[in-house]
Amino acid sequence: MPALRYIAVEGPIGAGKTSLARRLAERLGADSLLELPAENPFLARFYQDMARYALPTQLFFLFQRARQLEPLAQPDMFGRPIVSDFLIDKDPLFARATLSGDELALYQKIYDAVRPQAPAPDLVIYLQAPADTLVERVRRRGAGYERGISEEYLAVLAEGYTRFFHHYSAAPVLIVNSENLNFVAREADFELLVERMRSMKSQREFFNLAP
């Protein structure tokens, strides 16, 4: 695989994308570009009342992500590589999970207007895990604004990600079953993933470590 200048790590809430993105950035000498959920003033209320707060929550994230990606529209070929924990392309799947009718139509118009013309990543790492595993991880990390997340919502997101990546073709994708992997606590898991990344030869490959 050619040099990886821009890597995006994706997956539903609790999949481990931010932890992995940080580790990869450190390992590769790259800059990290991470989502900032704690800055969203609507998020905690959204998890308590999704119908009421879905639109402002989603629009805040959309504007935030678009602003973060603006520098990538004119990449510095001599700068450091970038490892991100999000793709803005996935933003609409969250909207479709919680919005409908006029609100969804409004969101889509705004998304089309503000989406930056950033380059596609050189590699996308898509982390998968069952909904019960996602719930366990979310509970374990104990972020206050995530206390209201339900297993049903995580299952909807996991299914949305499956559909999204079934059709995604803008960049090579390494699909990783992260259920039995721990890239923070187990160095061997992380090294296996790095080796798998570097040995990719096709547009879509899978990495699954049996228990």
In words, what does this structure look like?
There is one protein chain. The model has no long low-confidence stretch (mean pLDDT 91). The two termini are 28 Å apart. 47% of the residues lie in helices and 13% in strands. It has a 6-stranded parallel β-sheet, covered by helices on one side. The chain is built from 8 helices and 6 strands. The chain has helices spanning 17-28, 43-48, 50-69, 91-98, 101-114, 131-141, 151-167, 187-198, and strands at residues 6-10, 31-33, 82-84, 123-128, 173-177, 204-208. The chain has a single domain, classed as P-loop containing nucleotide triphosphate hydrolases (Rossmann fold). Helix 3 (50-69) runs antiparallel to helix 4, helix 3 (50-69) packs parallel to helix 5 and helix 6 packs across helix 7 (151-167). With 211 residues, it is of the alpha/beta class.
CATH topology: Rossmann fold
Order of strands in the sheet with most strands: 2-3-1-4-5-6
Number of DSSP-assigned strands? 6
Helix content: 40-55%
Task: Provide a count of the helices.
Answer: 8
Class from secondary-structure proportions? alpha/beta
Assign the CATH class.
Answer: Alpha Beta
Identify low-pLDDT runs: none
Morphology call: globular
Percent range for β-strand residues = 5-15%
Instruction: Quickly count the domains.
Output: 1
Helices and strands, in N-to-C order?
EHEHHEHHEHHEHE
